[in-house]
Amino acid sequence: MDFVTFMADVNRHAWHDELPLVWSMVIAIFVVAVLRLKPDVKKSVFITVAFFLLSLLGLLISGLIFSLGFESWGRALHETFIIMEGIFVIRLGGIVVFRLLLPGLRIRQPGILEDITDIIGYCAWLMVRLHYAGLQLSDIIATSAVITAILVFSMQDTLGNILGGLALQLDNSIDIGDWIRVSDTVGRVVEMRWRHTAIETSNWETEVIPNSLLVKSKFTVLGRRKNHPLQWRRWIRFNVGYATPPGKVINAVQNAVREARIANVAAYPQPSCVTLDFEASFIRYGLRYWLTELDATDSTDTAVRSRIYAGLQREDICFSCPEYNVHVTEAGGSYERAKLSKIRHECIQALRKMELFHSLTEDELLFVAGRLKYSPFAKGELITRQGDAPHDWLYILLEGQADVFLELPDGVKRHVGCMTTGNLIGEMGLMTGAARSATVIAKTDTMCYRLDKETFKTVLTNRPELAEELSRILVNRRFALDNLQQEVDAELSAKQLTQQQNSILERIRTFFGLDA
Predict the structure, then answer these.
(1) Which residues lie across from 188 on neighbouring strands?
(2) 289, 390, 398, 479: least CB-packed within 10 angstroms?
(3) Is the whole-model pTM more than 0.70?
(4) Residues 198, 190 contacting (CB under 8 angstroms)
């Protein structure tokens, strides 16, 4: 046999009639991949085409072996490479359908569907080739059933991953691009395949999580809320000492962050600061803001922390760390005496500015200041209520503001004034035993000192003439409050008169049929 005849025999046994059609399809897919598909899909096409070419080389080798006289080996290799050729062609077809045609038609499908379709195609192609090899279809099905049962039993985890991935995508639990938290891992879903789901983290790591684990365990989809834009609430926690009122800290932080217009911070809901806890030596606060770009956590947190720091510094507020105060005093107690003297001096200076205490001597002021009790009120707190029984104390307002309300007979509260630094609250009840004449509510965080009845009784016992002067001051204040009450009553009476007139007018019109 000459060489030409030998090669013709090799060609006759190596190739099959459908090869030109297959070649045409492969070349067309290759060209489309080069021109239209994404880089990651191009790589998959190139690898598949390369294996397709290897299968063609295998067919040529099988034809060569057959022509050399090893017919059984040649047929076996030929059928093997035919099966491989079909598998690679099915793979290329899946790429065209699921990554080119369906996306072009804007048809959304689960990514795992491509893998399952390819596997079904491989099994069908294998059964077809076995049928051509001489096996009956009934035998193939019976054998396949037994093999399937064995595979199902031995590959439970693999099947669980396949079904889990399909379930996750069909019920839209998660999708490509979603940010999720699984245990301690936070990242963006970048791929969902038949066996696993891949998550890219901010640390440039890719976590590969089996689908069966996602189905069985709890995971959190970050930033997703029905009928709302994508945004994720973040917490910035910090500590400030007890010397600064919480209201002042909250206002300073909120103003600093809201006015900054920080990138990736949502305008709504607005950033807000809250008190989280009271620790041994500081108050713990938390600033809440909503992040719009979930991959910018570190940079945005840094920007927000910078605004918090600057806002607190502008208000002379310092951060606090856990600390312990150890005071070493001498046997004579000089430290405590100095501390007490400082507090009394501040109170005396405040008392001097108040009309009610103008006539007191230095010793009397010192006596009163030594018995004041620090009593702060937070914004919105009730200080006194109109009509309540008198208490045996009054409040001296040293810092902040408080609103004064009169309660009308119909139950409506009317704002009649605002108290500022230096005002007294509840002085009439302390001096005369009268019920509270107005309701006072803290408008801002206020710093008050409480003065009890026994202290004033001691002063009046030593100086009875002070009672006349104090009565003059209290009468003036009572007269002003009564005038306000009369104005309110007159306004209420006029309003009631108008309402009654309108009611009678309506009855007259109805009785005489004037409305018609």
Answers:
(1) 179, 200
(2) 479
(3) no
(4) yes
Strands in 185-192's sheet, in edge-to-edge order, are 206-210, 196-201, 185-192, 179-182, 220-222
R_g over Cα of the chain = 44
Q: Can you say whether the dihedral through the CA atoms of 61, 64, 69, 75 is positive or negative?
A: positive
* Chain-centroid distance, C-alpha 503: 54
Q: How far apart are CA 431 and CA 416, in angstroms?
A: 23
How does pLDDT run across 165-216, given as a tens digit for each residue?
Answer: 666 766 678 888 899 998 888 999 988 877 788 999 988 899 988 888 888 8
Contacts of the segment 56-65: beta carbons below 8 A, 24+ positions apart: 56/81, 56/85, 58/84, 59/14, 59/15, 59/85, 60/10, 60/14, 62/13, 62/14, 63/9, 63/10, 63/11, 63/12, 63/13, 63/14, 63/15, 64/10, 64/14
d(CA 349, CA 285): 34
Q: How many CA atoms, within 13 angstroms, populate the side-chain half-sphere of residue 202?
A: 13
Give the SS3 label for residue 236. strand
pLDDT of 154 > 70? The answer is no
Least confident of 158-172, 304-318, 501-515: 501-515
Q: What DSSP designation does 355 have?
A: G
Task: Please count the residues of the chain.
Answer: 516
User: What spatial distance separates the first Cα and last Cα of the chain, rounded to whole Å?
Assistant: 123
Tokens 């930033």 correspond to: 223
Nearest to 85 by CA among 62, 66, 64: 62
d(CA 216, CA 373) in angstroms, rounded, equals: 60
Residue 453 one-letter amino acid = K
- Tokens, residue 38: 């994404």
